Amino acid sequence: MSDNSFGRLFRFTTWGESHGPAIGVVVDGCPPGLPISAEAIQRDLDRRKPGQSRYTTQRREADEVKILSGVFEDERTDGLRTTGTPISLLIENIDQRSKDYSDIRDKFRPGHADYTYFQKYGLRDYRGGGRSSARETAARVAAGAVARLVIPFVTIRASLIQIGPHRIDHANFDWDEVGRNPFFCADARAAEQWAPYLDGIRKAGSSVGAVIEVVAEGVPAGWGAPVYGKLSADIASAFMSINAVKGVEIGEGMHAAELTGEENADEMRAERPLPKFLSNNAGGILGGISNGDPIVARFAVKPTSSILTPRQTVTTHNEDADIVTKGRHDPCVGIRAVPIGEAMMACVLADHFLRHRGQTGREGGFGFGRNAP
């Protein structure tokens, strides 16, 4: 199986299966000398791990990360620093229940990757989906924690902004609320209203989709490149690579099709040291290059495919069958996608930071005055 790596200069490769002994990631291209610790990586993993509320899968995984390579002792601080060599991170699987999937070993789950994996490889890991399982995303979150070390001046945050048909009210948006509710939602009132709705979905054995908004602040102007190295394209690719993601938009996204040129244009006025944009319909990216405004992107996650409602399907022998997927599954996989979205944004930005610095010798844009070309 190819294509398990992402990025150019900051590049990571994930490995392992949902019901294997462990999963992990190898991060290559991380600059040397950065302070690093298992605790810093663990903080991000703890936000993604399962079993933290009744609204996520009850699979119990500690997701305890182990750093196997790429670090060395810092005599000045008694901590660890990156060496510039590949950083290998290991996360053991400790709560697999493969027997939960024995009834579907010969059946394809509708809406799942079972059928397409079988068509491509001639076999599939029916125990949770193997590589197609969302379990793989724990490794991405670990890679994202390393990426944040490369760009400490950038703040990356995400919030669930929609579950099913229910959206937040941006007038109530408060980043401090994200850590105070089980939905990672910046609107406390919306989170309170979502609770009974998702309880009903969960008790019915069904699932529902969601939308996550990711915002990166502190990105200077100049990151990204035309024509095939666009920052926006890499962000879209990163999000679309996440399990169950079916759509991505940046800035006004699809809504931009409803606007006139006057409404959509982000007008500018002179300020010091840099001009100011009067709006951010572009989501912080123009022509595939960051403009210094916050980067705003959203992605939509489909409902979890594994549900208790009987569905029609076929077997691996191409025979009609009905299927009920038992086991422990997220009624809304979008909840745990919040830290995953942050991680993928961090990986893209770390990669583009290194690419920009490598080409221009600068961390940001040229600006005005003496530094102008």
From TrEMBL:
<feature type="binding site">
    <location>
        <begin position="302"/>
        <end position="306"/>
    </location>
    <ligand>
        <name>FMN</name>
    </ligand>
</feature>
<feature type="binding site">
    <location>
        <position position="48"/>
    </location>
    <ligand>
        <name>NADP(+)</name>
    </ligand>
</feature>
<comment type="subunit">
    <text>Homotetramer.</text>
</comment>
<comment type="pathway">
    <text>Metabolic intermediate biosynthesis; chorismate biosynthesis; chorismate from D-erythrose 4-phosphate and phosphoenolpyruvate: step 7/7.</text>
</comment>
<dbReference type="GO" id="GO:0004107">
    <property type="term" value="F:chorismate synthase activity"/>
</dbReference>
<keyword id="KW-0456">Lyase</keyword>
<feature type="binding site">
    <location>
        <position position="54"/>
    </location>
    <ligand>
        <name>NADP(+)</name>
    </ligand>
</feature>
<dbReference type="InterPro" id="IPR035904">
    <property type="entry name" value="Chorismate_synth_AroC_sf"/>
</dbReference>
<dbReference type="InterPro" id="IPR020541">
    <property type="entry name" value="Chorismate_synthase_CS"/>
</dbReference>
<keyword id="KW-0521">NADP</keyword>
<keyword id="KW-0285">Flavoprotein</keyword>
<feature type="binding site">
    <location>
        <begin position="243"/>
        <end position="244"/>
    </location>
    <ligand>
        <name>FMN</name>
    </ligand>
</feature>
<dbReference type="InterPro" id="IPR000453">
    <property type="entry name" value="Chorismate_synth"/>
</dbReference>
<keyword id="KW-0028">Amino-acid biosynthesis</keyword>
<dbReference type="GO" id="GO:0008652">
    <property type="term" value="P:amino acid biosynthetic process"/>
</dbReference>
<comment type="similarity">
    <text>Belongs to the chorismate synthase family.</text>
</comment>
<keyword id="KW-0288">FMN</keyword>
<keyword id="KW-0274">FAD</keyword>
<feature type="binding site">
    <location>
        <begin position="131"/>
        <end position="133"/>
    </location>
    <ligand>
        <name>FMN</name>
    </ligand>
</feature>
<keyword id="KW-0057">Aromatic amino acid biosynthesis</keyword>
<dbReference type="GO" id="GO:0009073">
    <property type="term" value="P:aromatic amino acid family biosynthetic process"/>
</dbReference>
<dbReference type="GO" id="GO:0010181">
    <property type="term" value="F:FMN binding"/>
</dbReference>
<protein>
    <recommendedName>
        <fullName>Chorismate synthase</fullName>
        <ecNumber>4.2.3.5</ecNumber>
    </recommendedName>
</protein>
<dbReference type="GO" id="GO:0005829">
    <property type="term" value="C:cytosol"/>
</dbReference>
<comment type="function">
    <text>This reaction introduces a second double bond into the aromatic ring system.</text>
</comment>
<dbReference type="GO" id="GO:0009423">
    <property type="term" value="P:chorismate biosynthetic process"/>
</dbReference>
<feature type="binding site">
    <location>
        <position position="328"/>
    </location>
    <ligand>
        <name>FMN</name>
    </ligand>
</feature>
<dbReference type="Pfam" id="PF01264">
    <property type="entry name" value="Chorismate_synt"/>
</dbReference>
<feature type="binding site">
    <location>
        <position position="287"/>
    </location>
    <ligand>
        <name>FMN</name>
    </ligand>
</feature>
